[in-house]
């Protein structure tokens, strides 16, 4: 069985035994091409591994960001629920004070009417005093 790509040690032996220079150059070129192909394949493999690692790192970062975002929204949700409870308490307190405010407004209107009546009585008593 013959080897189509001679190795360097066998090529020098074959060259002494009658290998033609064109065939020797052809074998070296094939060896060079194989070596370049292997190097290119290794570099492509390393590049692909690096790209995949970056993709995995990006996915891990996104996962971390999603977890942190979920925690933030959970905190915000709890805070908004507490604020809604406090607002409800404030509305109830305002409703309770609303009755008192209405009574105070009625008393204020009555005091205005009493003041007008007192002024009218004062003017009437002055008028009676002048007679």
Characterization of the model:
- 91% of the residues lie in helices and 0% in strands.
- It has a domain at 8-97.
- It starts with 7 loop residues before the first helix and ends with a helix.
- It is rod-shaped, with a radius of gyration of 51 Å.
- It has helices at 8-16, 21-130.
- With 131 residues, the protein is mostly helical.
Q: Report the count of strand segments.
A: 0
Low-confidence stretches: 1-15
- Bin the strand percentage: under 5%
DSSP summary: helix tally: 2
- Tell me the series of helices and strands, N- to C-terminal: HH
On the 0 to 100 scale, the average pLDDT is: 85
Summary?
It is built from two helices and no strands. The chain has 131 residues and is mainly alpha-helical.
Architecture blueprint of SSEs:
Layout: H1 8-16, H2 21-130
Keyphrases for this structure?
131 residues, mainly alpha, 2 helices, 0% strand, disordered N terminus, Biogenesis of lysosome-related organelles complex 1 subunit 2, gamma-tubulin binding, BLOC1_su2
């Amino acid at each position: 069985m013959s080897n189509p790509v001679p190795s360097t040690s066998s090529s020098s032996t074959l060259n002494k035994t009658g290998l033609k220079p064109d065939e020797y150059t052809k074998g070296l070129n094939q060896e060079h091409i194989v070596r370049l192909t292997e190097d290119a394949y290794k570099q492509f493999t390393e590049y692909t591994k690096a790209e995949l690692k970056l993709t995995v790192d990006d996915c891990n970062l996104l996962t971390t960001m999603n977890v942190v975002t979920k925690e933030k929204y959970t905190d915000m949700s709890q805070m908004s629920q507490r604020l809604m409870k406090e607002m409800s308490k404030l509305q109830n307190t305002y409703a309770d004070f609303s009755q008192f405010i209405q009574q105070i407004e009625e008393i204020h209107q009555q005091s205005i009417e009493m003041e007008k009546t007192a002024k009218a009585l004062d003017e009437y008593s002055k008028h009676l005093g002048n007679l």
